[in-house]
Amino acid sequence: MSYEVNINGEDREIEILGREGNRIKILLGDKTYDLDLMEVEPGVYSVLWQGKNFNFELTPQSLKKYTVDTIAEKIEVEIVDAESRYMRSRKGGEEEDVAFISTPMPGQVVKILVKEGQQVKGGETVIIVSAMKMESEYKVVKDRVIKEVLVKEGDNIEGDQPLITFE
Amino acid sequence: MSYEVNINGEDREIEILGREGNRIKILLGDKTYDLDLMEVEPGVYSVLWQGKNFNFELTPQSLKKYTVDTIAEKIEVEIVDAESRYMRSRKGGEEEDVAFISTPMPGQVVKILVKEGQQVKGGETVIIVSAMKMESEYKVVKDRVIKEVLVKEGDNIEGDQPLITFE
Amino acid sequence: MIKKILIANRGEIAIRVMNSCHEMGIQSVAVYSEADRNSLHVRYADEAYFIGPAPSNQSYLNIEKIIEVAKKSGADAIHPGYGFLSENADFSERCKEEGIIFIGPDAYAINTMGDKITARKTMLAAGVPVVPGTTEPIVDLDAAVRTIKEIGLPVMVKASAGGGGKGMRLVEKEEDILSSVQAAKSEALAAFGNDAVYIEKYINSPHHIEFQILADQHGNCIHLFERECSVQRRHQKVVEETPSPIMTPEVREEMGRHAVAAAKAVNYAGAGTIEFITDDNLNYYFLEMNTRLQVEHPITEQVVGVDLVREQINIANGEKLHYRQEDLSQHGHAIEVRVYAEDTDNNFMPNPGKINYIHFPLGAGVRHDSYVYSGFEIPIYYDPMISKLVVWGNSRPEAIGRMKRALQSYKISGVKTSIPFLSRIMDVPDFKNGHYTTHFIQNHQEALKTKENCSEECVDLAAITAFVDFITKREQATPPSSNGRSSMSPWKAFGRKKAVSRI
Amino acid sequence: MIKKILIANRGEIAIRVMNSCHEMGIQSVAVYSEADRNSLHVRYADEAYFIGPAPSNQSYLNIEKIIEVAKKSGADAIHPGYGFLSENADFSERCKEEGIIFIGPDAYAINTMGDKITARKTMLAAGVPVVPGTTEPIVDLDAAVRTIKEIGLPVMVKASAGGGGKGMRLVEKEEDILSSVQAAKSEALAAFGNDAVYIEKYINSPHHIEFQILADQHGNCIHLFERECSVQRRHQKVVEETPSPIMTPEVREEMGRHAVAAAKAVNYAGAGTIEFITDDNLNYYFLEMNTRLQVEHPITEQVVGVDLVREQINIANGEKLHYRQEDLSQHGHAIEVRVYAEDTDNNFMPNPGKINYIHFPLGAGVRHDSYVYSGFEIPIYYDPMISKLVVWGNSRPEAIGRMKRALQSYKISGVKTSIPFLSRIMDVPDFKNGHYTTHFIQNHQEALKTKENCSEECVDLAAITAFVDFITKREQATPPSSNGRSSMSPWKAFGRKKAVSRI
Questions:
Q1: Residue C227 in domain
Q2: In chain D, which residues have pLDDT < 70?
Q3: Do both D8 and D90 map to the same domain?
Q4: Does residue B35 carry a pLDDT above 90?
Q5: Which one of the listed residues D292, D396, D402, D424 is annotated catalytic?
Q6: Claim to verify: residue D143 and residue D193 sit in the same structural domain
Q7: What's the rounded Cα separation, in Å, for the pair B48 and D487?
Q8: Touching check for C307 and chain D: CB below 8 Å?
Q9: What is the distance between the terminal CA atoms of chain D, rounded to a whole angstrom?
């Protein structure tokens, strides 16, 4: 899967090149970082880069959004994955005619708000999925008719699995 | 269910007479205590009795055994329930001829070590059950033949439910 | 001899008082509201009693209930801390009636000092300087001009019926006196239909300097030198230090003498504080007396070496003061900052909530008065102060360096705090040089807002850290697939192994 | 000027040194072994470098690796803390060769003081009293008797080839001299085939009293008074205090002068400690010099008001001492206890492990030097000291009361600690009165083992609490039955509600 991180509003590609214990090699944009990165307390990371020590405290704002508290300033970081790109593209008006709803992450179905054959309006939530203790609502972008509901409430689901398909 | 607590080696009956929020009324032996009892941090209790403040730190030693650290001394406390009494009676040589193995607490079956029809020797473990993150081995006291295994590994079980029956 | 003290307070000050009780072998009795059952002061006391719902007027301000608990528990004295009932003359009186020692002054001292006009008159009679000004409204123009010349420039002319700045004139030059008074009068007349004015000395660069005093029941009174409390935000002290960077030995001695005279004028017994407004030239005027322990008392303790709560208890016991004035001296320099759960970027809004974890700063010269712990939820009902961080240093620069270090290693997660704001104060050149007045925070708003930026690499690393956290947690959340290990990349296996070893 | 310091240590002392670096605006470089990646000293430094596996001979004692990191990081100085490489003359020399400032004395001073015989001779030459005794074995009976009379009673006669107490005789009375020497000699002959003996002054009630000194590179040297360290267990200090309860101003001055003379005799530069063995009559003899910062240095800092690490750095910078002897005085009383992760009931076995939570004692007069935090696992590879708890009080009794209070509010769960044992020391009358020698712990073994018992009600409440915890956790663990709420008693519902609200 390919990822980007949105840092204070700007998207940059990110890729883990290697990892062994705390040591991690990562590509951000065109820069490569060799790091010793450790979660020393819940949500608190110590990052060593070229000997320099950075202490970061992470506060998750949602599933993929973090506020990173450095000593100097707070940095807003959003993880951009396939789902985010899809969501964005829909927001952007250039709507893909997707055939189904899926989640990018493993989780559990909390609530299904539609039935097979039901007509739903654009913007309506059709399913709520919980992952990592946070719930996300998945909406349709335009008016659709529900074809199949492939999961039921309480189901554990893997990522990128069709959950609800459309006519 | 009737309980006793074994305090530094001595058994005394204990019963909750009433509870509302932190307030609890409890009978220990022939003494009644009206308490305000609160777990203020994990494993740390503040107990107010007649205004006096007692801070206790609990260290579970096993499912039913605690070391209670008071400021002055450490008290060993064991909860005595039906199971304990049964276990004790078996240890004491006065073996009941029980028809099945059961657990006093809800939990999950970790491992079943016997099959139906199998001959087992006294003292052999037949099933391992986990409850509250701790595993307990259940043994037969004398030589038995397994009649039925009513549960399978991974099953969630309620307390006092027959798990394995004997011929 | 006092054997058991009820502390009619909560939070850090309740614990502060209990500390001295423990050290003196005195039993302590806590009281708590519904919001405070799991507060540290309850666990810290020998006894603890519930006194009512969370709002303080139904609990910590409930005199009947507190007296009832004192009697039930057999407490022979009550320490009110600061705030709540600490300056309540009725409470002091009531304790007396009930035969319970109130650790604080009697109703007479509280009442006299509690009323601004009575206090002013009492101080004038005792020869303590007060801000020069008229006590009666003046209508006559000539009388006004005469009064201004008596008081001396600069003065503030205020409409006696006024408010909102209308009919107010600052007069700084002699040639402006007549025109200013006339302008103020006609403005007052137009606005309020009344052209009477008050005249008051205007303090140009005001400093808030206060003196700690201790007085026993036998007429002895000493002072424990000054505290400089000019770093204020909306009249709330933010940073306090002692000695004051603008003080001289001569003025200190004179102010100390006046502070003692002020206390003696109301037959004071106990610990108290005389607040003075002081200008750049060290002209000083009595502002008010706080007839209780101050929030900022620790800096005096650090520099003078006297435990003020212990002395309060000794005095309440009827003992004579253990110190003479000549026994006392100032040793080094102390600074206190008040750490609040507040959002300093958002108009200092209180930010109560649950503290996920807290690392207190430790080590040489650091004193910490607090009542919170990891997992504690700061109640919404009371003052959102988390702690008072106090440092001591051999010199003022050493103390400032130490405070910066301490603030840097002070970590609280879960609530927003004033720590970064306090840290920026330590960096403002005017603070470092000791050149500041009560306008300091207002005058340095920009500097105090300015945040350091991360370096480019720091931003990159912050983003990488968030990403790694996301990926790691996600891997950990993935349920094992049915065919087991085969689907697991070495990478995933690492993630899982780490998760396990962390448990 | 030193701009960046590598701290070749771990634990509380690494953080202690970094604190002074932060306060002085100096960059700090941490080094860490495999066991210390999540240690606080790593997060606390500006830079941190990995130096090898957990065992200290492969990491914190690895001179090559540490020099390599110093060069890589551009550190211009190395602070060794205490222990590890702090008294390693080769390391001091190697730093010099590499052009890195070693914050400590040169190889000559370390070597001279590191060898007992050389140190003794150097001290004798400098006029510093050493324990009187023979330096060569004596075979002749008359010579032995003459030597004993020169040294003065009591003396210890020891077989020169001896060990294990054989051929040892304590001589206290004059009439026993001849017979004792004869007995020692014949016993020695029988046991070792050699009847030569040593004779040494016997110190009856030994006190361990040490003097802190500071010396610059310009020949100036001052002392910062004494520390009393007689509360020891197997030669490990357990409690230290200053001033010593047995000291007099006259002896203090004389010992201070001798301490300065001792340091000057080896051209000492830096912070150092001269240890003396002292008897009840304040006769004192040089024992050894520690050519580094001591574990117990904070009590001197609290009472004298000097930051010793800051002064070490100033000295290493080539600065002249900032203090003259006459500038210094002792102010109040300080006590330090060393809190260990150990099982004092089980022969003081180290008890490393994970700290579930920790509440540090706070408030007036409490200083805490530590490096642990809630959730931290104390590594098994190093000294199991958790922290040094230091209190300051106006007087010795006030300091003792404060220490008791601080120990009482110091809570650590997860590992056994020496806190209860230390608390009992504070209660022993001989300690309270200041009447103790190095035999204190040995002589009060019973009192130090004796634990307070809970009252009958306390025992009941402890049992009830365990029971309630059991029942509550059990209810929470019960899966909801299929027919939902109907099976839930109000009691259960309460348990569940509570569990939810706790999240």
A1: no
A2: 162-165, 478-503
A3: yes
A4: yes
A5: D292
A6: yes
A7: 31
A8: yes
A9: 53
Question: Which of the four pLDDT bands, split at 50, 70 and 90, describes residue B102?
Answer: confident
Task: Select from A116, B15, A54 the least CA-distant residue to D467.
Answer: B15
Nearest CA in chain D to A46: D43
* C24 plus C63 within the same structural domain: yes
Mean pLDDT computed over C96-112? 97
Nearest to C73 among B38, B42, B51 (CB): B51
Helical packing angle, C116-125 and C107-114, nearest 10°: 100
Q: Is residue C23 part of a domain?
A: yes
- Give pLDDT tens digits for D324-337: 999 999 999 999 99
**In D, which residues are within 8 Å of A52 by CB distance?**
46-47
**Which of C201, C218, C250 lies at the terminal end of a domain, its last residue?**
C201
How many whole angstroms separate alpha carbon B119 and alpha carbon B98? 16
Based on the structure, what is the number of domains in chain C? 3
Query: Which chains are within 8 Å of D by 3+ CB pairs?
Result: A, B, C
D176 located within any domain? yes
Q: In angstroms, what is the C-alpha Rg of chain C?
A: 27
| B–A touching, 3+ CB–CB pairs within 8 Å | no
Can you give the pLDDT at residue D310?
98
Reduce the secondary structure of C24-58 to three states and give it as a string.
HCCEEEEEEEHHHCCCHHHHHCCEEEEEECCCHHH
Task: Tell me whether strands D101-102 and D77-79 are parallel, antiparallel or unpaired.
Answer: parallel
- Those residues with Cβ within 8 angstroms of residue D235's Cβ, 6 or more apart along the chain or in another chain: none
Q: Which of the four pLDDT bands, split at 50, 70 and 90, describes residue A73?
A: confident
Asked if the bond preceding D298 is cis, omega within 30° of 0, the reply is: no
Please state whether beta strands B156-157 and B125-131 pair in parallel, antiparallel, or not at all (unpaired): unpaired
The answer to whether residue D419 is domain-embedded is no
- The answer to whether the CB atoms of C46 and B53 lie below 8 A apart is yes
pLDDT confidence of residue C404: 97
Chains that touch A (3 or more CB pairs under 8 A): C, D
Q: Are C145 and C178 in contact (CB under 8 A)?
A: yes
CA distance D206 to chain C (A): 31
pLDDT at position D490, please? 36
Is the domain of D97 the same as that of D12?
Answer: yes
Task: List, in order, residues 6 or more apart from A72 with CB less than 8 Å away.
Answer: C451, C452, C453, C454, C458
Q: Which architecture, in CATH terms, is A99-166?
A: Beta Barrel (2.40)
Q: Are residues C153 and C76 both part of a single domain?
A: no
Q: What is the DSSP letter of D36?
A: G
pLDDT at A107: 77
The answer to whether C496 is a known catalytic residue is no
Q: Where are the domains of chain A?
A: 2-80, 99-166
* Rounded CA separation C96/C77 (Å): 10
Over residues D272-317, the pLDDT tens digits come to 999 999 999 999 999 999 999 999 999 999 999 999 999 999 999 9
**Domain stop point among D169, D201, D233:** D201
Same domain, D19 and D98: yes
Banded model confidence at residue B95, pLDDT cuts 50, 70, 90: very low
- Dist. CA C34–CA B73, nearest whole Å: 31
Q: Looking at the complex, report in whole angstroms how far the Cα of residue D110 sits from the nearest Cα belonging to chain C.
A: 27
Percent of chain B at pLDDT exceeding 70: 88
pLDDT, residue D76, reads 97
Closest CA relative to residue C29, chosen from C58, C62, C66, C63: C66
The amino acid sitting at C498 is: K
Range of the structural domain that residue C468 is part of: 456-502
What are the DSSP E strand ranges found in C172-301?
197-201, 207-215, 221-233, 236-242, 270-278, 284-290
Q: Exposure of D142 by Cβ count < 10 A (0-12 exposed, 13-18 middle, 19+ buried)?
A: exposed
- Measured between beta carbons, which residues in chain D are less than 8 angstroms from residue A38? 37-38
* CA nearest neighbour of C420 among C440, C434, C399, C404: C404
The CA radius of gyration of chain A, in Å to the nearest whole number, is: 19
